[in-house]
């Protein structure tokens, strides 16, 4: 079972698999996340590149499903519309095809548009706006501008969408896309207007229905939101997150009133830090503002030389009433060893629940009660983790949960941690079992830590140790449980990146990849079952 080096990236990962394994990889992804355009392209590329062509009904059925899905996700892609029509046996000179042919971007300008991809967002937007003035009929260019507006926290379409000149059929599709972007941007008033304008045509699009569902919930119309979600699932039952979100709306989760009381037993909160004084201060202030009940709080300073010790001591007196223990180490022992040090303190050995927070997070008021409640309500749960987002707006998902995507001799890979199109529309606000949750804000049970206490110091100074620990728990019969109803803002300043060059960071990542494989090489068969593919049928709908 010799380690096989596969360059990072979804495409290279899929190329290392047989086509049937790639289909199972796709089923695992669908069991985790909603499909988006870039990820769909990767799976299409793998299916289309199969030497000798696809040979079985299963393979052809999934290829056809992917083509239809891509045509829906990229409604202004003329080639995708043609391919989807061929699969459906529909005429290729339909009103949609004729409309798309009318607004086809001149070949001479395609490269100019593509060259904006790697430009800074501000510069790219100005260039695209200039091109849009030349091509006011280009819905593909307008669609790209919508996405760029969202990325830059600009109301999608503001100041330019009125200039679009295209056939009415395409204008309707564009307005549906603008509705989705406005909903994700958080402009509820505009999104509601666009929803009402596009309701009739949008009713046939699961993506539109999902956004309409969350907009309804967000604006106080929960029952209407559930109806939108039910309609979406009828059209595409492979949307496992939609099923989970609908279940959450039908059966709302709430933290238990006594979650932080004596009945739960002692709770220990642990933090560790290395030279991130300002971020650590922000984290401690956020922690102090949250409800921690009678939980103990311990901070380990990993050889800090930036004034973190003095700052923490001051906040301990002013915000925590002196109840925070501070351990000031003379050297940086790394994240795994810091976690282990804390777990072997009296507080770590005696606590019924142990929470770990990174030193660059902001937590909501009820984070601890919610995560402890998740653990108390699930006898198999060993660890519970939060939904993690980037700072700033519009809100983007940073880390949700992961399963095992590949476990075979020579290759072990974990699934993507978020959808590629990672704007947080509320679609992942539910509780579910998984194989790994984010390590910046998670809580363990005593039973789980008694089985698997230590984090693996082979992954020092950071990265992969929390994933390995969660997988160890799963191999011992526990579940990792994701709670998307707790949102943690993570500023993501990993210790591997402080003062290191890019080549050093890359070496650390690649080295940990090798260690990770051999760490679990004897358990590949068991890890292969830590997947979400079982939630998705072996054949796609309609096959």
Sequence-ordered SSE layout with sheet pairings:
Blueprint: H1 10-15, H2 19-32, H3 37-48, H4 57-73, H5 78-88, H6 95-102, H7 107-114, H8 121-134, H9 139-151, H10 168-185, H11 188-202, H12 206-218, H13 222-235, H14 240-250, E1 267-273, H15 277-289, E2 296-302, H16 308-318, E3 324-329, H17 335-343, H18 346-350, E4 353-357, E5 361-362, H19 367-377, E6 381-389, E7 397-399, E8 401-402, E9 404-408, E10 411-414, E11 431-434, E12 436-437, E13 441-445, H20 446-451, H21 465-475, E14 479-490, H22 502-519, H23 524-527
Question: What is the molecular shape?
Answer: globular
Radius of gyration: 25 Å
Mean pLDDT, rounded to whole units?
A: 94
The helix-and-strand class reads alpha/beta
Strand content: 5-15%
Please summarize the sheet with the most strands: 10 strands, mixed
Per DSSP E runs of 2 or more residues, the count of β-strands stands at 14
Regions with little confidence, pLDDT below 50 for 5+ residues: 494-500
Count of DSSP H/I helices: 23
Helix percent reads 40-55%
Distance between the termini: 36 Å
Give an account of the 3D structure.
It is a single chain. By secondary structure, this protein is an alpha/beta fold. Helix content is 48%, strand content 13%. The protein has helices at 10-15, 19-32, 37-48, 57-73, 78-88, 95-102, 107-114, 121-134, 139-151, 168-185, 188-202, 206-218, 222-235, 240-250, 277-289, 308-318, 335-343, 346-350, 367-377, 446-451, 465-475, 502-519, 524-527; strands at residues 267-273, 296-302, 324-329, 353-357, 361-362, 381-389, 397-399, 401-402, 404-408, 411-414, 431-434, 436-437, 441-445, 479-490. Strands 1, 2, 3, 4, 5, 6, 7, 11, 13 and 14 form a 10-stranded mixed sheet that branches. Helix 4 (57-73) packs across helix 5 (78-88) and helix 15 runs parallel beside helix 16 (308-318). The longest helix has 18 residues, at 168-185.
């Amino acid at each position: 079972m010799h380690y096989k080096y596969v360059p990072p990236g979804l495409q290279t990962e899929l190329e290392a698999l047989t086509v049937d394994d790639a289909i199972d990889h796709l089923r695992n992804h669908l069991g985790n996340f909603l499909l988006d355009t870039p990820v769909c392209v990767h799976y299409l590329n793998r299916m289309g590149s199969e030497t000798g062509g696809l040979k079985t009904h299963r393979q052809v059925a999934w290829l056809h499903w992917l083509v239809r899905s891509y045509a829906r996700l990229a409604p202004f892609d003329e080639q995708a519309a043609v391919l989807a029509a061929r699969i459906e046996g529909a005429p290729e000179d339909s009103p949609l095809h004729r409309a798309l042919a009318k607004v086809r971007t001149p070949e001479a300008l395609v490269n100019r548009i593509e060259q904006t991809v790697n430009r800074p967002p501000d510069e790219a937007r100005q260039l695209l706006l200039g091109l849009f003035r030349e091509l006011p009929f280009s819905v593909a260019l307008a669609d790209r501008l919508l996405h760029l507006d969202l990325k830059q926290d600009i109301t999608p379409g503001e100041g330019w969408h009125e200039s679009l000149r295209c056939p009415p059929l395409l204008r309707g599709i564009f307005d549906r896309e603008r509705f989705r972007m406005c909903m994700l941007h958080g402009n509820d008033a505009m999104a509601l207007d666009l929803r009402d304008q596009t309701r009739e045509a949008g009713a046939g699009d699961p993506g539109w229905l999902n956004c309409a569902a969350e907009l309804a919930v967000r604006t106080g119309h929960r029952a209407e939101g559930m109806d939108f979600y039910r309609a979406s699932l009828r059209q595409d039952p492979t949307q496992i997150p939609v099923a989970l979100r609908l279940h959450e709306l039908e059966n709302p989760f709430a933290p238990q009133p006594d979650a932080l009381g004596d009945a739960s037993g002692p709770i220990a909160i642990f933090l560790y830090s290395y030279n991130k004084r300002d971020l650590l201060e922000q984290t401690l202030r956020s922690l102090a503002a949250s409800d921690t009940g009678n939980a103990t709080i311990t901070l380990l300073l990993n050889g800090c030389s930036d004034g973190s010790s003095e700052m923490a001591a001051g906040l301990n007196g002013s915000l925590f009433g002196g109840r925070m223990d501070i351990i000031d180490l003379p050297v940086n022992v790394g994240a795994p060893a810091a976690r282990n040090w804390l777990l072997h303190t009296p507080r770590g050995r005696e606590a019924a629940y142990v929470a770990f927070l990174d030193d660059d997070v902001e937590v909501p008021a009820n984070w601890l009660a919610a995560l402890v409640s998740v653990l108390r309500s699930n006898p198999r749960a060993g660890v519970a983790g939060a939904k993690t987002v980037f700072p700033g707006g519009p809100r983007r998902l940073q880390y949700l949960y992961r399963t095992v995507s590949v476990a075979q001799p020579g290759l072990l890979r974990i699934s993507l941690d978020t959808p590629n199109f990672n704007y947080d529309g509320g679609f992942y606000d539910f509780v579910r079992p998984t194989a790994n949750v984010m390590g910046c804000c998670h809580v363990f049970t005593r039973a789980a830590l008694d089985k698997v206490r230590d984090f693996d110091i082979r992954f020092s100074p950071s990265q992969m140790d929390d994933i390995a620990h969660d997988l160890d728990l799963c191999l011992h019969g526990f579940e990792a449980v994701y709670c998307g109803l707790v949102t943690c803002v993570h500023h993501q300043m990993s210790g591997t990146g402080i003062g290191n060059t890019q080549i050093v960071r890359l070496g650390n990542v690649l080295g940990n990849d090798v260690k990770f494989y051999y760490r679990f090489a004897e358990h590949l068969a068991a890890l292969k079952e830590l997947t979400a593919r079982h939630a998705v049928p072996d054949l796609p709908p309609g096959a």
